[in-house]
Amino acid sequence: MSNYGTKLSELFSQKVVDIFFQKSVADSITNNDYEGEIKNKASKLNILTFGALALKDYTGANLTADDPQESVGLLTTDQAKAYYFKIKDLDEFHSWIKNPEGTLIEQCGNSLKEAIDAYILSFYGDVAAGNRVGTDYTTGTVAIDSSGNVTGSSTNFTAAMVGKGFKAAGHTKWYRVKSYTSATAIVIEDDLDDVPSQYTGGAISSGASYVIEAASPVTVDKTTIYSKICALKTKLDEAKVPATDRWLVVPSKIANLLIQASELIPAVPTAYENTVLKGLIGQVAGFQVYQCEQVSGDNTNGYHVLAGHKSAITLAVAFTESGIEDLIGNFGKAYKGLTIYGAKVVDERRKALAELFCKV
């Protein structure tokens, strides 16, 4: 009987994972290109990536060989979700597995889907500086010292600007707001997560104009939403992100605007299953568009609508433990199952994400 119970618990776990993969937006917008095995909540997995190689002019003279730099991003499975519930007997448990529709097994799969979708869509903070679309902040002028301390004149910096992209006149690339001190003082840093915080942009004298990107949400409607999505496309195009496998995830308020816009190409009948299960509503500006209520934010403070390429976010998920046990001091049994997962955006792939900070 114990072997029978073990088999049922493993089958139940597999069915839950199957429902997750059938319905999850996260599965459609991430990759699983990692090395290693998920064993527990603290599993360490490697993500391998290479820096760009240079295309050289050939004149007939000897070439100098590039040394491809392989970097390893470390993904830690730091998320854990568990199920633990009573069952009357193994026969009842078996019937739930055979007929998952409308039973606890479907509830488990759906709740796992919602949890992981919300987790993945919260990665808007990993969008590369300069890849956000919203209402920029440009009031006043700034001076910057060699350590990245920014002193503003006639500025009104806020704590909500932390994490946003920053670029001043004299900068050749985007940086990131590291911390907030006051309305006239912030600190900026290089837009990197896999190395200790640093600022390499140099000192800039007072009176410089600047931009803090998407400091507040931009209001969109059915006539303007397409232009904002095209702005996301431009960000990815300029970063030389591949045009294939691009995606965009929107909440229902934004999805309903797109449905009214003539630019949306609705999902075709052959993709009906994905349309229903994963929320695929169509294609616009080269993005596969998914509707999902787990998008971070709200219509008061702004939605963090995430777009990108499938290479950007690496997701690792596994049902690591399951079992059936006798209830101590009572009749019946109980099922328990543990799902471990984690995700990572390595620095080299931050450019493959873009964000529209908006509200309706």
In short:
This protein has 360 residues and is α+β, with helices and mostly antiparallel strands.
List keywords for this structure.
globular; alpha+beta; eight-stranded antiparallel beta sheet; 2 domains; nine-stranded mixed beta sheet; single chain; 22 strands; 360 residues
Characterise this structure.
The protein is an alpha+beta fold and 360 residues long. It has two domains: 1-7 and 24-48 and 71-134 and 217-360, no CATH class; 135-216. Helix content is 23%, strand content 35%. The protein is built from seven helices and 22 strands. Strands 4, 13, 14, 15, 16, 17, 18, 19 and 22 form a nine-stranded mixed beta sheet that branches. It has an eight-stranded antiparallel beta sheet with strand order 5-12-8-9-10-7-6-11, with no helix packed on it. Strands 3-21-20 form a three-stranded antiparallel beta sheet. Helix 1 packs parallel to helix 3.
